[in-house]
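Section 5.1 Outputs to date
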Amino acid sequence: MFTTTTAEYLESFARESSWRVHYLHVTHGARPRIDLSAYDAVLISYCARLCIPGYVSEQFLELLDRYEGVRAIAIQDEYDFVEMERQRLDRVRPHVVLTCTPPDQRESVYPSGRYPGTEFMQVLTGYVPLHLSRVSRARPISERSVHIGYRGRDLGPRYGRLARMKFDIGRVFREASIARGVRCDIAMDEASRIYGDAWYEWLSDCRSVLGTESGSNIFDFDGSIDAAARSARGGQLSSVIQRKIDALDETYRMGQISPRVFEAAATRTALVLYEGRYSDALVPYEHYIPVARDHSNLDEVFRAISDTDRLQAMVDRAYAHLIESGRFSYQAFVRQVESALERHLRRPPGTGEIFVDPASTDMKQPPLIERPTTMPRAFDSFQLRSVLVQLQTPPSALRLLLRAMGFGRIRGILARIAPAVFAR
């Protein structure tokens, strides 16, 4: 699990579900030892990216081929390698697909004739984390030292307009803030990114935070756009590929609400967002200050940020709508998924006999043998087992590995990870 959002997404099923939930690592050559017939449903997380050849273990897919229960899959970044993903869906034959694609865009991505009987359920990329829903008090808007905050990045031309906006909004507002003498903390470089609890502390000192829709409209059906972007010199795409990207930007509308919106709402930080759809979860002027995409209303936006009384009322409305209501909680998300799975069950849930081997986390077993666990394995555990597998390689391959990684890096991984893993 690389990010906090991913960890929260995965763990929400064990924490919030009324079903018995187990986790199984199925990527990077994993060899699952499990009887899937004991389970009512199998949900493939978006972390197990079927669109990447060889990423998901073939042994797991063979088990899934024979599985007669409910099959479900969550997909994110659906615009990457679309046809490859669809071919994997042909094999998995899912009953339920958790998708970020809006219903009015779905037919061109997942034709109903190709997936008869499959239920496509629209979900978000992330929800309100449990610890954020319990933020008890936040500093009043008038007491915060930073008037406008933002952290973004330049994703280049590959992902089109929505990705470009993440850089543009920071650039425009940094220049406009400096010109107006408004206190801002805006950066779009990797060195300035903020992680962990420091992120929430930073948000809590911002009167407002900039934001854009998440996602991309650039559906790369055959992988040609990705290939062109990788081979582009100096990040400059050919005119042919750029025209293709521009056409896709006019065809699809995939803008979604970002988990960052929930983080800002939970810390009662005002949202200053480009005009957009935001998964139909936000109303402009009621929950956020809209920014015209041509930046023609910047004076209006800066006046709104300076009016602390009206800004405080707006953040209180956003908090009540997004956080207090529970509509966007992980609990609500898991209940939604459960309901979908139950619609496709052929037997009452929970009637299978499930046995979890207590030795499933025993590191004495072969490193890539995987058994179900009651919570997701920590990423450090997988990292260590990957190193152990590499150490079983022939001497010549091992020398190449050590040369590439460096003895110090491997020693550091083992020193940092091994005590925690073996103590379990």
